[in-house]
Structure formats: C-alpha cells, structure tokens
Amino acid sequence: MNPLRTLPKIDKCLAHPLFQDANATWVMKIAREKIETLRQALLCKELEYVDEEALMLEIKKAYDALFTPSLKPLINATGVILHTNMGRSLISKTLLERASTVICNYSNLEYNLEEGCRGERYEHVSHHLKALLGVEDVLVVNNNASAVFLILNTFAKAKEVIVSRGELVEIGGSFRIPEVMKQSGATLVEVGATNKTKKSDYENAISENTVMLMKVHQSNFSIEGFSEALCYEEIKRLATQHSLLDYYDLGSGYLPKLPYNLGNREHSLHEILTCNPSLISFSGDKLFGSVQAGIIAGRADLIAQLKKNQLLRMLRVDKITLSLLEESIKAYLKEEWEEIPTLWLLFRSIEELTQRALHVKEVIGEPYCELVKSETYMGGGTLPNRKFPTIALHVKGKATLLERKFRENFVIGRIEEDKFLLDFRTILPHNEATLISIIQRIIGY
Ligand SMILES: *Cc1c(COP(=O)(O)O)cnc(C)c1O
User: Fold this and answer.
1) How many Å lie between the centroid of ligand 1 and the Cα of residue 415?
2) Distance 414 CA to ligand 1 centre (A)
3) Are strands 279-283 and 245-251 parallel, antiparallel or unpaired?
4) Which pTM was predicted?
5) How far apart are CA 192 and CA 194, in angstroms?
6) Domain residues for 30?
C-alpha cells in the first residue's frame, strides 16, 4: 500500500471525539501542519506509515498547549508577602468586583458629566487620594519608576540634582537611580560617601545649576554601623533655604501604623508628609497594597507642571488601574483592612497563623510534618533586614525533592536548614483546602 494513504484527511481529525468541543479553525491549522510534516517524512522514507491515534494525540497536545494560560495562580508559601516574582500585591476579590462596574461598562474616564465635554482622566482618584494623604494634589502614573523619570525630566532636565552616594540604589536589577537620571536628562551630583553624608556635603554641592535635592529610600538594603544620612526634614529645610525643590522617592509608602517596630528608618507616609515635601512618589503595589502604579503627591503647582509634560501621555494609566486604585483608596478611607491583602497578611498574629497551621498539620498527620517557628522578610525591596515572626509547616523528607514536587503543583515553599517549609504568613485561607490535597498527593497518601 502507498504509505501516503495512511495519512488521515483533515476532516477526519476534526471529527475525532478528542476535538468535540474544540475550536475547529485551530484544530485544522495544527492538523494541517502536523500532516504536512508527516507527508514529508513519508516521502523521504523517514517514516513507513502514520499511526493515526498517535497523531490525534499529538494534535490534541499542541491544541491544549495553545489554550493553557501562561500566567498561573500560585500558592505562595515562601512567607514573603511582597514577592516581586509572584506579582507583589494582591487585589481582593471584593475590590475587583467593585471596580468591575466601571471596567465592564463605558465610563466617564475622560468625560466631564457636568459640562458634557472632555474631562480629565486624573481627576478620578485625586479627590479620594488627596483626602487620604492630606496633600495639595496628586498624580498617578504607570509605576514608581515612571514617577521618578517624569519628575526628573520635568524639573531637572539639563540641571543638577543632588543625591547622597548612600542612596544610589538599584532596584530589581533594571532600575538604577544613576541610569534613570541620565535617561531623564538630569545631571546627578553625588555627595558624601557610601556610609556617610552630612549636611555640609549637600551645601558644598549646591551650585547655580542645582534645582533639586532628592532623597531615595534605600529600599532593598541598609547600611549599618558607622553611618550617617540626613533625614528628610533636614533635606527639606536645606532645599527651602536655597530655594530648591525637594523630592523623596519613597519606593514603598505605607499608611497605617504597622504592628511591628520598624525602628527609626521606616517612616509612614503620614510621618513623611508632616515635613510638607515638595514632591514624594511611591509604588502602588508595594506596602500600599494596590495595583501597579506610581503615586506622586505634593505641591499643586508642581503637579500641574508634571501634567503639562508630554511624557505623561506615555506613562498614563488605564481605567483598570484607576478604578482598582480608587477602590483601594476608598477601602483605606473606610479602614477595610481585609480588602488590602498586603496589610491583612502582615497584620495576622502568630496565634492565628499557628491555629491555621495546626489544623493542616492535624489533617496531614504527625509523622509527615511538624510546626516550626520561623522568621520571614517583607520582600519587594522593602524593609530590608527587618524580619517578621511567622509559623511554617515543615514537610518531612528530602527538601530539594519536595521543593521541586510542590513547585510542579504550583506551590512555592522555602528551604531553611535543609527543611522544606510551607510558611503560613503568605498562605491565603481560601487556598488551604487545595494545599492540603496537594500535600496529601505528594507525600503519597
Ligand atoms: C521599588 C522602587 C522603585 C520602583 O518602583 P516600581 O513601582 O517598581 O516602578 C523606585 N524607587 C525606589 C526607592 C523603590 O524602592
């Protein structure tokens, strides 16, 4: 028999029970490609005949791969609340539902309902955000990196900005203050030494080209021991004395008093705002606990200038961001902490985590696991060197093997002293049942 006759027709593929509910266009496209490859293989005698069932399964596999989402939900059992690789802040389902009324309908995003004419996209969050922060005006851009860029480009292009050497940070590998400054057109004037910057260092560096004194939060590292830096209040005072702008890139701004003593390095937004800064900026999705956004707050005249920069058009936020951010801000105003998952997770007490971990331990059974007290970090380039108490379930067995097996089941844990741990600081209560069945499967119930 002619081997080419063993090639099935496309129609036959489409009619196969495997593709009963599949999209015919894509089944055909994939089938055509596979059949063509097989035809070539038959013609040059690399293949003797076609195994039809194997072919169908191969088409099915390619079809499924096409529709398997690349972004997958994970159970974060690392204990790191703001995990940069796992999406930073979570959005609560309630807030998502509230925001969906705007996202899934036409809205007045840029429409002035009173006048019946074009309106301003940035007006929407500004009302609530100004109330929350108690500032003159605000502006929201794509992320905090763009906020830094926009501010420097608007006020410091072809001018000098003074920054302490100890604050020339790199965040997540792709954001380096000196590089961002160069790109924005501003000239960086570094002052002080890595560990020490004094008031006189700033004073000596001020020239007629200086426009701004900038403070950058060290975010993901800290300089301990023999070190000195100016607090924001002093920088602000110095800037005012010399008629310069002051700007604080806060990285991760947070609002409520946190349940842990953070020492005198980490100030809340309210504390910083009491110095009346010209401008500050922070991320929407770090400790603030909302969507990815860059929030700029400060003097109304400066915000107005930022709005005139053409760059803003490139950094502008979508209605999805604005409506989610607005819902987060309203949750803040109403003190609905459970709707700000980042804070909610941070605020869980050790007793509560222990109870939940104990429940899982009892279901799994004594010989397979035990509870351990441990410590974790905030993550997301925030609160470096600050450990938080936590409770973890130690799943007994070879740690590296368990780490891989859990990862294959979309559970990311951590290894500590050769123990594989599932940290309850970041395990969401609604994921607990799933987690239990995954543990049972892996330890071979
Ligand atoms: C995180 C961070 C940024 C970047 O913020 P994104 O919202 O990630 O763009 C900038 N500056 C500092 C100090 C930061 O900590």
Assistant:
1) 28
2) 25
3) parallel
4) 0.92
5) 7
6) 3-66
